[in-house]
Design goal:
The complex is a heterodimer.
Chain A (H helix, E strand, L loop, with lengths): L4 H9 L20 E4 L3 H13 L5 E4 L15 E2 L6 H21 L10 E5 L2 H16 L5 E4 H7 L14 E5 L3 E2 L2 H14 L3 E3 L4 E7 L2 E7 L2 E4 L2 E4 L5 H7 L6 E13 L7 E4 L4 E5 L4 E12 L7 H14 L8 E12 L5 E4 L5 E5 L5 H18 L13 H4 L16
Parallel strand pairs in A: 1-2, 1-12, 2-8, 4-14, 12-19
Antiparallel strand pairs in A: 3-7, 4-6, 5-6, 9-10, 10-11, 13-16, 13-17, 14-15, 15-16, 18-19
Chain B lengths: L2 E4 L3 E4 L4 E5 L11 H9 L7 E7 L7 E7 L5 E6 L11
Antiparallel strand pairs in B: 1-2, 3-4, 4-5, 5-6
The chains are: A alpha/beta, B mainly beta.
Chain lengths: 416, 92
């Protein structure tokens, strides 16, 4: 069913009795042309763009839990393309362009809100670094504006410009950045893929890969064996677990990242703000809650929960930027598992196993990449060759010395 | 909150420590191949379960401590000084 004002009106007049489920619940078949492991944002987007490219292929998405239950429902919903290194700048800008047309493409309201992303700087050297990044972005055709302290105060009246320890000198603003309703991204892609014939199979955990003679021939799952000559892995957070089944060594560690939502309040923040003297990012949801997060807990973890010292650190940063939030109550707090790669950049590539493709290593930045990640991964699987946009996101870049180290943090995944 | 037993100072909060990564890797000989050095710097088992790791007791005695910790439950099995032998669960 196509969603429109007319379908809404006619359903309203009929007591909303005619709505159909947005996707089917098919049983797994014995064989598919292509299997995508992981029904998160990236897996579903991959299936959607694959089905668009390859109209005749039979495609399945295997999800161990339920759609929207993993990191696509656990992030802080921010989208942006303010990267400096060319492979990142072009890739994330492609993603932002796909976000801009996403709702029309999917016929689904994902509440894409280009409210702007402001990165604050607090010193002269940081201003220079941000100006350099802004210039690199503008050279690549991405929007960026360097604001001084007065302009920042105008944009966000509640901000503490004169913080005694970290006074705000200005910010790098990307007006086209913003937020997206994350659950709707999962649902929209799932509905779109399903309409194109993709089988989305939930509660189906992959327990092994059928690899013989250096090629993949299928997967073993909790719902039986399924054959396929092409298999894509998109399980960020658990990529090491899947890679181990294929005997692939990876420069990845899994770490927990916490996120927080405050009680709902009246509108006070109409843009996304990041604190430059630490690591803190905040926006206000349409429901009124402040949605924010900070650093990793900084130890290997597969537990989807963090610990108090990090929470305390994040909340301290919140009060440093926006003193007015000091007496707000916290409504919810949770954790998600990040695939931390050793340079902070992702993998969308072929693997040493023929027919097996890898999408992972997303670190903090997976959500904003969802459309381009799916788009590039679909291209890579369909053509057995990377697109120019993801040609640099390989596993072997570390051994070749071609790391894409945006932050310059060195080979410590928890420091990316 | 992890409570990590420092072999020198006793049980302390995790906020006294800095995490320093996987303790199961060791520096290859200087004439080892590029591949060996690549694996030493970059490749990790990243287990979902028991993990040998380094914690630096930077807010205490400043010694490096080996810790056997579960990455799924955050349970700590044992700790040992840097040169010591770390007790490790048998099923891991």
């Amino acid at each position: 069913m196509r969603y429109s004002v007319f379908s809404l009106l006619s359903q309203g007049l009929r007591g909303n009795t005619g709505w159909k489920p947005a996707w089917r619940q098919p049983a797994p078949k014995n064989q598919y042309d292509i299997i995508i492991i992981g029904g998160g944002g990236h897996g579903l987007a991959t299936a959607y763009y694959l089905a668009k490219l390859h109209k005749r292929a039979s495609i399945a998405v295997l999800e161990k839990g339920w759609i929207g239950g993993g990191n696509v429902g656990r992030n802080t919903t921010i989208i942006r393309s303010n990267y400096m290194l060319p492979p990142n700048t072009h890739f994330y800008e492609h993603s932002l362009k796909l976000w801009e047309g996403l709702e029309q493409d999917l016929n689904f309201n994902a509440m894409v809100s280009q409210r702007g992303v402001l990165n604050l700087f607090h010193s002269d050297p940081q201003r220079d670094a941000f100006a350099r990044r802004g210039n690199a972005m503008r050279l690549a055709g991405v929007d960026a504006e360097l604001l001084d302290a007065k302009q920042v105060k105008q944009l966000i009246p509640v901000i503490d410009i004169d913080n005694a320890r970290f006074p705000i000198e200005g910010g790098l603003f990307q007006p086209r950045g913003g937020t997206v309703r994350h659950d709707a991204v999962a649902w929209g892609y799932a509905r779109g893929a399903d309409a194109l014939g993709v089988d989305i199979i939930q509660n189906c955990e992959v327990t092994g890969l059928d690899i013989e003679g250096g090629s993949v021939h299928g997967v073993h799952t909790t719902r039986g064996d399924i054959r396929a000559e092409r298999v894509g892995i998109a399980v960020a957070g658990h990529t090491s677990v899947l890679a181990q089944m294929a005997g692939i060594e990876l420069p990845v560690e899994s770490h927990v990242l916490q996120a927080f939502v405050s009680e709902g309040i009246k509108p006070m923040l109409d843009t996304v703000v990041t604190f430059g003297a630490g690591h803190f990012y905040v926006s206000q949801s349409d429901k009124g809650g402040l949605v924010f997060g900070g650093d990793l807990d900084r130890y290997n973890s597969y537990a989807q929960r963090g610990n108090l010292p990090t929470a305390q650190n994040v909340l301290t940063e919140a009060v440093a930027v926006l003193p007015a939030v000091a007496r707000l109550r916290l409504l919810r707090q949770w954790g998600g598992i990040m695939d931390m790669s050793y340079d902070g950049s992702p993998f969308i590539c072929k693997t040493p196993v023929k027919g097996l493709y890898l999408n992972g290593g997303w670190c903090y930045g997976g959500f904003k990449a969802t459309p381009a990640s799916g788009w590039c991964f679909a291209h890579t699987i369909a053509n057995d060759k990377a697109h120019d946009l993801n040609a640099h996101f390989t596993i072997d870049r570390f051994e070749r010395g071609h790391v894409i180290d945006e932050k310059g943090a060195g080979p410590f995944p928890w420091a990316q | 909150m992890h409570r990590i037993k420092c072999p020198f100072c006793g049980e302390r909060d995790e906020s006294e420590y800095i995490y320093q990564g996987d303790a199961s890797v060791s520096h290859p000989p200087f004439d080892a191949s590029i591949g060996d050095f690549y694996r030493y710097v970059y490749v990790r088992d990243n287990p979902k379960g028991w993990h040998r790791e380094w914690w630096h007791h930077v807010g205490g005695c400043r010694m490096w401590v080996q810790v056997a910790r579960n990455t799924l439950t955050h349970e700590i099995y044992a700790t040992a000084p840097a040169g010591g032998v770390l007790d490790f669960p048998e099923d891991a």
